[in-house]
Amino acid sequence: MQFLFSDCVLDPERRELTRASKAIAVGPQVFDLLLYLIQNRDRVVSKDRIFEDVWAGRIVSESTLTSHINAVRKAVGDSGEDQRLIRTVPRKGFRFVGEVTEVPASERDVGGASSPALDTPRPVPPLPIRPSIAVLPFQNLSGDPEQAYFADGVVEEIITALSRARWLFVIARNSSFTYQGREVDLVRVGEELGVGYLLEGSLRKAGDRIRITGQLIEASTGAHLWAERFEGRHEDIFELQDEIAARVAGAIAPQLELAEIERAKKKPTANLNAYDCYLRGVALMHRGTKESIAEALTLFRRTTELDAEFAAAHAMAAWSYFWRKVNGWTEDRDLETSEGIRLARLAAELGRDDAVALTRGGHALAHLAGDLDSGIALLDRAVFLNPNMASAWFLGGFLRTWHGECEDAIAHFERAMRLSPVDPELYRMQAGIAMAHLFAGRVEKASVWAERSYSNLPSFLMVVALIAVTRALGGRREDASRAIDELRRLDPALRISNVTDWLPIRRPEHLSIFADGLRKAGLAE
């Protein structure tokens, strides 16, 4: 069933809105709200009824409803002053008052039987608000037609893996595979599918070796953003298929995020929407400096002002408060801790199925509230939702480190680095491995990993402390003393007695190792 009103056509099956024969981009809940008002146009619907039916009873502020009503009005060419189509009934609710014609699906595509508004060519799909990608069928370069099924299986697994990332809009397999065996213009494919990025690739089998190459393309220009090669033996072909799919999906997710950040940077600041504001905050957060984290917090606050239900933005703000605490940058420790805990819990509530929100919110909650068990549970759910998200693996590794599960923690860090070997947060993964090795009694290995992390971010307080500890425990007292001087410069208030206020080390024997190293390096009690 399609709904025709004013100069608009609303198609619930295709989830498309057109106005004056032009596609109008609207968010999912704005679309649902418009459809709900039209379907209930015979009566006034109350705010409570809308919250119950459109938001499924979730806790939503009135300001959120107001912003969505305004977005609906803008999409259909109405306004709060005119109220030609959507009328506000004071103290009662809202009603759709425009004249609506319903066209059954059976008439929609029958030539000459439909309204002129339906006879226009199907519009080019608008780009979604989220980053969007289509994974095209991979070319089989093996010279063996029997290998085509393997290449198709890899592509299907990649699509499934990417679809677990809620921040990403992924074209379904059935649409992607319509291009199989065809010479295509990638820019045109991007337009036809309505996506910002394309992943194409090829498969070649030689002897018992299989090589898969993938390229990430910017659809609007055809420019190559990233390329990588993955190899393995043919011995267990389906296990290899799953492994390659996971590695490709894990590798391109950070590349997509970086590409979107660069796109957001090019937009005028005055024209930012919530997602662009969020991306700028993420870019600053990755830098990890005191100044960049302060700027990131401002942007995450602005994001949630624009969209109060942006769970990942609440989580990133909470995580920024954690980062300020762990580096000794807090201005009002109690206030920032309580605010970080509030935001982390809000993120977990709003983003029950959002791996990013659960990852950052869960990690912040574990640190700020000292609740390692809840944090680990939230991180484990994030990994369940998106097994290819590197940050969920390495932050889960940190929580296991503090919990005392050193070997499991190292496995988490190694998985994260394999999924995202050029990740902007690589220094955090290196620091985590260093701490886990230290608690496991492998001081030299801990020292090597700590030095690697330090070279990437010298202002990381935990790593400077690790360097002091490993140098002191390794008998390099003079080098350890220099590291302690740097530690005092970064946080003059740090003492051995307040280490547990700073790091949630659960096991007494691990705390003893860390404290002993700091003591030998020269940190005051």
List the helices and strands and how they pair.
Blueprint: E1 2-5, E2 8-11, E3 16-19, E4 22-23, H1 28-39, H2 47-54, H3 62-75, E5 86-89, E6 93-96, E7 100-103, H4 105-108, E8 132-135, E9 139-140, H5 148-163, E10 169-170, H6 173-176, H7 186-193, E11 197-206, E12 209-218, E13 223-233, H8 237-265, H9 274-287, H10 290-306, H11 311-326, H12 333-350, H13 355-369, H14 372-385, H15 390-403, H16 406-419, H17 426-439, H18 443-456, H19 461-473, H20 477-490, H21 499-502, H22 508-521
Parallel strand pairs: 8-10, 8-11, 9-11
Antiparallel strand pairs: 1-2, 1-7, 2-3, 3-4, 5-6, 11-12, 12-13
Helix pairs in contact: 1-3, 5-8, 8-9, 9-10, 10-11, 11-12, 11-13, 12-13, 13-14, 13-15, 14-15, 15-16, 15-17, 16-17, 17-18, 17-19, 18-19, 19-20, 19-22
